[in-house]
């Protein structure tokens, strides 16, 4: 049984078929890459899985629950966390508070408990703070904890987004171009980080344009073109596939 | 101990003895400042923390005041019992009117909330359900009575109002520094990212409205029993503008800032009564200058502090 199974997913915007009858399965514990030329519908697939868009047709099953027509925050609490293609942090808040945002959906205390500082609420705050610190340490940003998010470097902001996603204790983490804007050293560190995420038993689904990164860490790759899935397979299979070569390099006119 | 705490303690001490050396007129000015401060603090969750441009807060204040006035004059329910009830009715009203508009952003929300406060005022003028007394309002509202002590003089109201303010400050301070306060701040910073991080944005925005309205309703109760007469003129759009300016001028999301804002916006016009014709001119100029030089208010909020070292070292104990 796949952790995530997408079947016949379809979404159009006006006359544009952004995602057309896409089906794939993602096994627990794997790292899967979603690649394709610009405008192929990769981010739309992500937005459909994370509940930002509603599909026109098709089904998304995660852990034996349907994600279709669930709100984005529900999907996070079900166990799917995401990062954004364009970094979306809480710029004027501290780094640690950004990570605490991820902890939010695992906390329960309400207004009354907070106003009167009930013991359960204090314990929960402490426990969440501990988790947030652990995640910061995991991505290597411990020393930035009390800095404002907007003061971090670009690469560190991407790491902070990953820490925030991890703090929600997901089963699946969806990374939208995590290496975008990173230099070679930062990308190498990111590869190591993604491997460590997988080692924690978290399944990873990522969009990435850096092919060397994709080929290094993904066990499974799916290729989209014009909204349709053209291949699913291992990196070797995908690299040899004539349709993928055609999609990326164009077809010989003769 | 931090220097700011000492300053606050000294100011609280001076304030708590002020009825002994101020005449009743100035004590009453302080009472008004206190009422406006609580109202602005209740708006602060919506406007300051969640960043929602809500300019209809006087509507919730009005609902609370009218609930108290109607039930007290018609059924002689004691004022003090009506305080939580006024809050609850205002909160329910807020939940009903805010639910359909909660997804609106920025200036769109602003316009709709102006509509709400106007609708409430006009409904009151038109003697809705035949209980609001039309444009004359309701008179003969009773005084609050606590353990046999009837509160009627300005200095009695001073302690009544300022103790209510102190309790509010304490509870709101706790609330700011919690999961709830953070959730509102995430929404203010980036709503989409907040939703994508697992925060139920619609729920929290609604709760901010309901909580703010609950407090505004309770202030409505105090106001009705202090004035003994209420009429629709006390709940105009202009009132909402005042609360709005108190929050923005003092510092969105900052409790000391909002209280300072109440002193400036409500207190200063009393001090400069002689220049009352030039009041609005100076007020407008001051707001423009503020927005240029201190856009986040006179006393912007301080960042929350987390005892990270204790968590790191502490290990298992809470």
Return the average pLDDT of chain A rounded to an integer. Answer: 92
- How far do the termini of chain A sit from each other? 45 Å
Q: What is the mean pLDDT of chain B?
A: 90
Tell me what the CATH architecture of the largest domain in chain A is: 3-Layer(aba) Sandwich
Helix content of chain B: over 70%
Shape of chain A: globular
The name CATH uses for the topology of the largest domain in chain A is Rossmann fold
Description:
The complex is a heterodimer of chains A (254) and B (318). Chain A is α/β, with parallel strands linked by helices and 254 residues long. Chain A has two domains: 164 residues, Rossmann fold; 79 residues, no CATH class. Chain A contains ten helices and ten strands. In chain A, the strands form two sheets. Chain A has a six-stranded mixed β-sheet, with helices on both faces. Chain A has a four-stranded antiparallel β-sheet with strand order 2-1-4-5, covered by helices on one side. Chain A is globular, with a radius of gyration of 19 Å. The mean pLDDT of chain A is 92. By secondary structure, chain B is mainly alpha-helical. Chain B has one domain: ABC transporter involved in vitamin B12 uptake, BtuC. In chain B, 70% of the residues lie in helices and 3% in strands. In chain B, α3 crosses α4 and α3 crosses α9. The longest helix of chain B has 27 residues. Chains A and B meet through α2, α3, α4 and α5 of A and α6, α7, α8, α9 and α13 of B.
